[in-house]
Amino acid sequence: MNKINWRSLLLLFSICFFSFQCTEKKSYYETSGFVFGTTFHILYGTDKGEVESVVFDSLFSLINQSLSPFEERSIISRVNRSEAMEVDSFFSCVFLKAQEISEETEGAFDITVAPLVNAWGFGFKHSDTLSSTLIDSLKELVGYEKVALVENKVVKQNGNLMLDASAIAKGYSCDVVANYFEKQGIDDFMIEVGGEVVTRGVNSRGEEWVIGITQPREENSISTPTLQDCICLGNGAMATSGNYRQFYYKDGKRYSHTINPITGYPVEHSLLSATVLADDCMTADALATAFMVKGLDWSYSYVEGRPNLAAYFIYSDEKDSLKVKYTTSFEKYLIKK
Predict the structure, then answer these.
(1) Whole-model pTM?
(2) Nearest alpha-carbon partner for 45 in 260, 205, 204
(3) Contact 140, 131 (CB under 8 A)
(4) Is the Cβ–Cβ distance between 197 and 208 less than 8 Å?
(5) pLDDT per residue as tens digits for the range 86-102
(6) DSSP string, 260-312
(7) Calpha distance 155→146 (Å, rounded)
(8) Angle formed by the axes of helices 166-183 and 89-104, to 10°?
(9) How far apart are CA 280 and CA 137, in angstroms?
(10) What region does 264 belong to: left with phi over 0, alpha with psi -120 to 50, or beta?
(11) Residue 196: in which H helix or E strand, if any?
(12) Cα(9)–Cα(7) distance, integer angstroms
């Protein structure tokens, strides 16, 4: 009988174990840049090697070609010109979610608000003359119930009706990248596009991803913002909408970029920012916008009745001091100071 060479067997085991460890070791990678008129930042851990940057560029490009009103040949631009065509899966996914949120929020979120947003100077086109008469006429072109998707074709009640997906597309782009990672078996990542965030798993230190909520002040720096609070998001999505960055003054009055689709005018209330946590970033993004239209009380009540949502609101009191109110479901995410 041949004798067992224990030294050789031990060496073989050591080599196999070392190879297994090398194969299983996870490295973290980072990529960032500009997209959709804002910045993006992606961190992810994998044992499969770094994802080529062209992959992210391609995903963002596909979304842009579908949903950007600034691209002349994008699907949404062609829809706005009432060209006969079928939409792609990116467009249909966002459109159907937008219609769902519109109905849920009594029209506070509405992708047909484009003519009004443009008129107030915050959209992809601008109006030189602004009057109550113009606002009233443009309101006739606004209303989510005036547009539908039938057999992958957009049907508009009025050919002049225009769509703007800016208040939902950044959140959706986070979901698209997250879906790509999950299909590749990448379980640990943080995706941020223009302040909208999706996280899964843990960071390079093996800890949950920590995400900050920016203090809504005009003087707050974008590159190094002062934070109001920080949260551990877990496996979820977060979006924030606010009125403290995009605005202008005219004749001594401040006009915010959040336009109420019902009234046709910029919102005027004490709510400064709304942060929403949801299962997907597209939903969080749209709801955050809707809440900035509806205001604090309605929005708080809406979220309190839905266990799959959480929200954090920053508002100003009568002395112009910042105040915070968050739903019961949000408290578990907060990092105690």
Answers:
(1) 0.87
(2) 204
(3) no
(4) no
(5) 999 999 999 999 999 99
(6) -TTTSSB--SSEEEEEEEESSHHHHHHHHHHHHHH-HHHHHHHHHT-TT-EEE
(7) 8
(8) 120
(9) 36
(10) left
(11) strand 196-200
(12) 5
